[in-house]
């Protein structure tokens, strides 16, 4: 008896082999997944390169390399002078207790309440404060008798309002943000003008333009 070879499955003319079609679909799906993953990775990388968890950098801000910083930013200094003049007009005298602060000075403050005696006065180490870049000041009130106080209820000009909050209101109007608005660790004497720059950007050598 003669044996015959089995006849392979025949595919009608004009139609593709379903096995080949399935393979092509799997190949297309594989490439599509790779493209999507590459696109997602690019987005994540871009986000980490330009973002900051606490204070995102605004891309429309002009970026200029920072010179060596040893004093307050000129605009901050001018606004500080304006703040003192405006508060004086309503019978309040303020004293600027701190302005530019070096990273070494910042580390010394950070040590208080930790490796050194005294209460904790800051949550950030050197290089992580806007003081270190000349963009922040601290203030206190000065009474008519010359005493320097940090009493937020004190009403030295007798107008029924706390002098401290009157200073804060004027400072905000001049463009400062107030550390007392921070939720995690309020810093009531602290005023800063960051111009939209994050600490991360400042660390990388960028600084707000002086004009």
UniProtKB/TrEMBL annotation:
GO molecular function, a single term: peptidase activity
Keyword Ribonucleoprotein: no
A Pfam family that the UniProt record links to this protein: Peptidase_M15_4
Transmembrane segments: 31-48
Region (Disordered) location: 1-20
CDD domains (UniProt xref): L-Ala-D-Glu_peptidase_like
Name of the featured protein: Peptidoglycan L-alanyl-D-glutamate endopeptidase CwlK
Keywords, ordered alphabetically: Membrane, Transmembrane, Transmembrane helix
Domain Peptidase M15C: 126-193
